[in-house]
Amino acid sequence: MRIIFAGGGTGGHLYPGLAIARALVRSDSRVQPFFIGAQRGIEREVLPGTEFPHLLLDLHPLYRTRVWQNWRTIRGGITAWGEIGRVMRGSGARLVVGTGGYAAGLVLAYAATHRLPYVLQEQNSHAGLTMRTFSRWARQIYLGFPEAARLMSRGAATAIVDTGNPIEPPPSPRPDRTVAREKWGFSSTGGRVLLIVGGSQGARGLNQVVAAWLRKGAPDGWQIIWATGRGSHAEYARFESDRVRVRPYLSPISDAYAATDLALCRSGAMTTAELCAWAIPSILVPLPTAAADHQTANARALEAAGAAIFLPQRELTPDRIDVILGTLRLDRGELYRLAEAAAVRGRPDAAEQIARRILTLLRTR
């Protein structure tokens, strides 16, 4: 059974597709995933290292602030349309799974015009343009945040399901936190562990404030794991100490999650999904330049659910970090309540749930 996966441009749109594809293959070995993405997206680096066949096309986003460059979008779309058709016809595709981003739009348009069934997986609380456009004709829509449903145009035959975002789930049983702390060289008893991460590439605005904060010395009662991003590690490695671990990148990040009591991070959909699956409360500092400010929508949704503290970038200062950590250190019950609420929003089995629904849909047809 050939299933086409369309989505990419960023990791937030590509990795959910990979998680679903792997869950499908685990559930039914007859499934043959095939990925279509953009030559200029992250998929050009990631997909060649995966087990899945793929096709990268000359796809471009809509250039909203540089409209004169949209000729690239039109030219690439015309060329890609024929190549998408050849893949669809030649492989006997049964279904398309769209995970968003400009890399998914043209494939979903082809599926819609040729009456090929498709499903969507929306990661963020504010649904993206591609998902909003094609939601009306989707058979099923899987939401990472239930709040995204308000922007979807449900068709008569469309099922919208709150599945959570498909991620690599925490191991079962969970690693012992005491053992995890000792792996990092931290005290196994007393105090708390704060994880600071801005994404795989780091976050300059976050790193600069954290550096200014640590110049005063790590606060009492906290041990810190700080992932700076590979490009920034040399600048911040000097902050390493007996209570601060400075790393360019966390791989596997599960080693850090297992030791963490609280995270200070961006509010991308996959990051927050992982934190909730691990029942880790967070201080969320959205990326101000994210498309449609969707990271702020994610942070507000989790704060409203009691699972996180929303902290805009403009309010992120060393003093504000001290105040928040001081409050949580004195009020241990509040940190516990945040962790409980994060666990409620966690969906560690999202990929398997989505895979089951897709297979049921195919068998029904």
Q: Could you describe the 3D structure shown?
A:
The chain is an alpha/beta fold and 365 residues long. It has two domains: 182 residues, Rossmann fold (3-Layer(aba) Sandwich), CATH 3.40.50.2000; 169 residues, Glycogen Phosphorylase B (Rossmann fold, 3-Layer(aba) Sandwich). It contains 14 helices and 13 strands. Strands 3-2-1-4-5-6-7 form a seven-stranded parallel beta sheet, with helices on both faces. Strands 10-9-8-11-12-13 form a six-stranded parallel beta sheet. Strand 5, helix 5 and strand 6 form a beta-alpha-beta unit. Helix 1 crosses helix 14, helix 7 crosses helix 12 and helix 10 crosses helix 13. The two termini are 13 Å apart.
By CATH, the architecture of the largest domain is named 3-Layer(aba) Sandwich
Strand order of the largest sheet: 3-2-1-4-5-6-7
Distance between the termini: 13 Å
The helical percent reads 40-55%
> What form results from the Cα inertia axes?
globular
Average pLDDT works out at 91
Low-confidence stretches: none
Order of helices and strands: EHEHEHEHEHEEHEHEHEHEHEHEHHH
Oligomer: single chain
CATH fold-level assignment of the largest domain: Rossmann fold
Number of domains: 2
Structural class: alpha/beta
